Amino acid sequence: MLQIWEVLLQLPEGQRLHQSFGSVLHGALMQYAHTDFAEAMHRSALRPFSQFVYYDKARGSAVWQLAALNKEAAEEILYALGRLPQNLYLKQKEYVIQLSKPQPVKQTSYKDMAEQFFTMPQPPRQAEFNFITSASFKAFGSYKIYPDNVYIFRSLLKRWNAFCGGLVLVENNLEEHLAQAVKVTGYNLSLQQFGSNSAQTCSGGEKQQLLSNKQGGQKT
């Protein structure tokens, strides 16, 4: 089961969101989660949840979005969110933010997703990716401003196979085969400085054209 929630954030007057906000709130979430879960997440390289913070212009509010990739993670996130104080003091920022009650945004299952997307008679010819937060990262000791198609598919496949509960996608070098079956047809990306080392981060969106629907793994 996959679930997504949103929490609206109210910052003190004059304060703005920063790239580090997601990391700060991740720390707060783990502080109020069960100790064994928090310790396991600290050691794990592949976590069963994700979270990020962004500013929603339509609502005029900062939004904290959290997504759980399995039932255990969903229960732990809801437990931690239920314990977080409405007025949360952020030690790193040295001020208090106000949190709304978490609101469910979406819920689905891996089975429903597989039936919807893996068995459709006419697969879509295009897909659009939107990077709301920074998409930059480190790989093999070097800094990558932007993930190429292989990195994107590798990340998605790792999470799907780790948490799908049996609907595993298996094929040698599947991420490379999928990457070869698509190409970028449009993009709207921007760079900005991040951190004291003047590293650049990338955000924005891109469109992918699916060149072939014959590539793919075996569902087991």
Helix content: 25-40%
**Record field, number of beta strands:** 13
So what's the overall shape?
Answer: globular
Mean pLDDT: 86
Question: Helix- and strand-based class?
Answer: alpha+beta
Largest sheet: 6 strands, antiparallel
**Low-pLDDT residue spans:** 212-220
Please provide the ordered H/E string of secondary-structure elements: EHHEEHEEEHEEEHEHEEE
Helix segment count? 6
Tell me the distance between the termini: 18 Å
Q: Strand content of the residues, in percent?
A: 35-45%
Work out the radius of gyration. Answer: 19 Å
Description:
This protein is of the alpha+beta class and 220 residues long. Helices cover 29% and strands 37% of the residues. The strands form four sheets. Strands 1, 2, 3, 4, 5 and 6 form a six-stranded antiparallel sheet that branches. β2 (49-56) and β3 form a beta hairpin. α5 crosses α6 (174-180). The chain is globular. The two termini are 18 Å apart. The model is unreliable at 212-220 (pLDDT under 50).
Notable traits:
single chain, 220 residues, alpha+beta, six-stranded antiparallel beta sheet, three-stranded antiparallel beta sheet, 29% helix
